[in-house]
Amino acid sequence: MRDVTCIEDLRVLARRRIPRAFSDYAEAGSYSEETLRANRGDLEQIKLRQRVMVDVSSRDTATTMLGETVSLPFGLGPVAMTGLQHGNGEILACRAAHAAGIPFTMSTLSICSIEDVAAAVAKPFWFQLYVMKDRGFVRSLVERAAAAKCSALVLTVDLQVLGQRHADIKNGLSVPPSLKIKNLINMATKPGWVLSVLSGKRWTFGNLHGRVKGMEGVKSLAQWVGSQFDETLSWKDVEWVRSIWPGKLIIKGILDIEDAKLAAKTGATALVVSNHGGRQLDGAASSISMLPKIADAVGSEIEVMFDGGIRTGQDVLRALALGARSCLIGRAYIFGLAAGGEAGVAKAIGIIRNELDVSMALTGVRTVQDIGRHILVQ
Ligand code: GLV
Fold first, then answer.
1. What DSSP string runs through 47-85?
2. CA of 131 to the centre of ligand 1 (A)
3. Which of 92, 142, 146 is nearest to 121 (CA)?
4. Mean pLDDT for back-to-back runs of 10 residues, the chain (378 residues)
């Protein structure tokens, strides 16, 4: 870990440490991965203005997310099966996030359960919700999140049907999973991962296990999840979620101005401009290219967050300059987790923090509130 200086180093290390099926799962985009590449490519096109001779001696990366003070303008976004990147992955990532003073979001499809994480961390975390066909089960999930004192509900709205990721099918990580012999052999060559996952609390979907009648193993649970994506989902369901969750609500997966306006009307606290990390509609616009249009349209009515392709602190700076109040990172911390557990997540957060801090200085801004379009080359 000492030689790790950037997120790409963590990605390479993660690939060495964990089975290929799970690295592929984390890295993949859907279909031809055009949108996955556009997310990164369009971020890299945005040029920062180099400013000199500005007193930047006292800098501060703190800001607020949902009205709460955070030490950095980003949090950890929801990622399914985090606990298969490293045993107890959700607990470790949450601890690293809280130690850094930023929020952690647990996925509905996590390996540790809501209760496992709540019992192992000192502060509230955010819970990501998939509205599945079985509304009774969804209601019970929301109640469990409330009982665990989750401080926000992140409603994912861009996964009514699943975008195909070729690698997952080739690796047998599709729904239902049927890992190929070559993957099992590959797993046996990663003893550190085997040890960490075997010593973890759980190996299957913790929020579902024992809660869905007749569904126990990973295979039947995954089959159940696959049959539960609800193609009928509509804004009416957001109203329903609001009626059973009185707390702060974040709508994640907005990539269109019209949808952003509809999301703002729901009374949600925030929306996340997102194309699900290029994992859903391939051929969709990059997340960063839609951000300024959406921020201009609804930024005064609803808190606008951003995700999609962030690998550096410079990327965070670009997103804030284009109107995001804050960001979520996904793969960047997952690489850290797979590479080195809690310390790896802390490393990922620290890398992005330092890059952001230095880049703020070199663009001549001292606080997150000072960041705006004026720091970009027009
Ligand atoms: C699930 O949310 C995924 O993108 O795999």
1. PBPP--S---SS-B--EEETTEEESSSEEEPP-TTGGGT
2. 14
3. 92
4. 95 97 97 98 98 97 98 98 97 98 97 97 98 95 98 97 93 77 90 93 89 75 86 97 97 98 98 98 98 98 98 98 98 98 98 98 98 97
